[in-house]
Amino acid sequence: MTLRAEVPTATFEPLRAPGLARWWFAAGLLCVAVVALAGAAVGPVPLAPLDVARELVGLPSGLSATEATIVWQFRLPRVVLALLVGGLLATAGGAYQGTFRNALADPYLLGVAAGAGLGATFAIVNAGAGQTSTVVTLAAFAGAMAAMGITWMLGAAGDRTRGPASLVLAGVAVASFFTAVQTFVQQRDQENIRQVYSWILGRLSSAGWDDVLLLLPYAVVSTLVLLLSGRLLDVAGVGDDEARTLGIDPRRLRVVVVVAASMGTAAAVATSGLIAFVGIIVPHTVRLLAGSSYRSILPLSLLFGGAFLAATDLLARTVLAPAELPIGVVTAFFGAPFFVLVLRTSRAGAV
Amino acid sequence: MNPPQQAHTPPARDSVALDGATRAPRLEVRGLGVELGGVDVLSGVSLAVDAGRWLTVLGPNGAGKSTFLRAVAGVVAARGGVWSDGEELHRLARRARARRVALVPQEPTFPPSMTVGSYALLGRTAHLGILGRERRGDLAVVEEVLVRLGLRDLADRPVAALSGGERQRVAIARALVQDASLLLLDEPTSSLDVGHQLEVLELVDELRRERGLTVVAAMHDLTLAAQFADEVALLESGRLVMAGTPEEVLTERTLSRYYRANVRVVRDGDLLLVVPDRRAGPTS
Predict the structure, then answer these.
(1) CATH number assigned to the domain with residue range A77-349, chosen from the 4 options 1.10.3470.10, 1.10.630.10, 3.40.50.300, 1.20.1740.10
(2) What pLDDT is recorded for position A85?
(3) In what order do the strands lie in the sheet with B182-186?
(4) What pTM was computed for the model?
(5) What are the residue ranges in chain A where pLDDT is below 50?
(6) What are the strands, taking DSSP E only, across chain B?
């Protein structure tokens, strides 16, 4: 008798399209909720998390009127802004990684953030505009697109495949250049220098609901476009030629994704300054945990990126309390070692 | 000793009808040309293949076989026209074209950690709606193709973890899932051992019969080409130099001339064997 004699007709798990696992989506939402609650409860005036939770969902909470004001007018806008900025930067990072098929692509390393920073500085210095203004955001967007365009062209020069190293090297060069110009612009104008400085270091401390409202439209458009591009980014993973035979236009996809991601980056940078490494830490962690389909990487980056930055902000304002650390310092503290880890584990930066 | 040099000019013609003109050709190529960096890598190729037939494109390295397939598939910009069932493929929108032509590249790119099932599902791209959500019908197509190709139990495995023969089947699976009636294969057996070469080509031949596919394959192995092709087209330096049945094209004279090698064509029953022969020394 052979062992093969009684192999039953095998039954398999039904096929499923790759996508967002409900479990991970729920975990992301939970993270956001927990961090938001912590952000609203922790501070110079400590509040009971349970009371804050009841206040936030509209139940009678036992908070005094002053405490409720602290929650609604001071802490919550800051938390929401951190959630938005973190989500935008992480989603943009994931999208850049997908469209350039490059593990090291991130708004900061591609020079996009520096471009947005230059644009925003120009606007702050020249228009005399306050931080919360559409002019600053639009100028940041223009700067971001200019930097992205230059990085793309330089990174592609002499190398049609846009190797991972050449793109990032171009990005670093562009970032240095734009940062140099930005420093020049800000130093020339001593009147606004303090304003520029505090903005550069990435502060969410002065956040109010008007900042949130300013950021929201860009955030919604950028996020929608990127989330809808998830499947196409998966298709583009087979390379431009093959993607064409499957019926998509990889060049158009790349332009759409890059513009949307740069818009998100610019809006985030315009409201909260240069915050590095969120765009690389979060998408990679999500990819490791929940799989490499962009249909799950992008939405999870949005959730976990938001939670990560809100948690980082909480850390930034409690570690040295009553003094505050610039949030960009905290993300860089975690992000730089992580970046080295990614470099070492992802062979030649392939995604 | 060198074989006598051929005196006649090659039978290059403007158009080579490969089969009886009784049925409208499924695939018709007219004056197809491709220019890369100012050099004509393909020029003036015209031919026609009937529905459900197998055309093998032969030619030495650099003759333009891959370029021909890529031009038919619309991956590279090309002059001339390609008609499939009377529709001019290059005038179709990209998605519509992808529903009619599928190309299995010579070295398919498999994204790291992508599973067999997800990879095959990419073939549905041109069939999905604007939001790109796969419906049950799309999954059913993939299911059926994977079962047919014996890949169903590998559906959740990363493609990168499979053997060469399995990977080739996965690449074919994606093309079948595309549900196109014209299947282009670029050297489908180049990285396989002899057993898997036969297996893959048999599979393609069976699928061709079952689904009424028109197959165009670029190949190097002349003996295999002779066994699987209904018709053969020979390219050299981007031009079509000969077309016809395998018996007509695969002659010692033609092959020596265009491959610049001494080959023997040996008949064994209905088998046509093309064997390189070093005894005669290099041709001039």
Answers:
(1) 1.10.3470.10
(2) 94
(3) B101-104, B182-186, B214-218, B54-58, B231-236, B239-244
(4) 0.86
(5) 1-8, 129, 158-159, 348-350
(6) 16-17, 27-36, 39-49, 54-58, 79-84, 87-88, 101-104, 182-186, 214-218, 231-236, 239-244, 263-268, 271-276
Helices (H), chain B: 65-73, 94-98, 116-121, 136-148, 164-177, 194-211, 222-228, 246-249, 252-259
**Which of B97, B116, B119, B125 to substitute to test the interface with A, most A CBs within 10 Å?**
B125
Q: Is the dihedral of CA B54, B59, B61, B67 positive or negative?
A: negative
Cα A277 from Cα B82, distance rounded (Å): 49
pLDDT at B218 over 80: yes
Domain ranges of chain A: 77-349
Query: Which residues of B fall below an 8 Å CB-CB distance to A?
Result: 70, 73-75, 94-95, 97-99, 101-103, 105, 108-115, 117-118, 121-123, 125-126, 128, 131-134, 138-139, 142-143, 146, 152-153, 155-156, 178
Interface contact flag, A246 B112, Cβ < 8 Å: no
Asked whether B116 and B146 are in contact (CB, 8 A), the reply is: yes
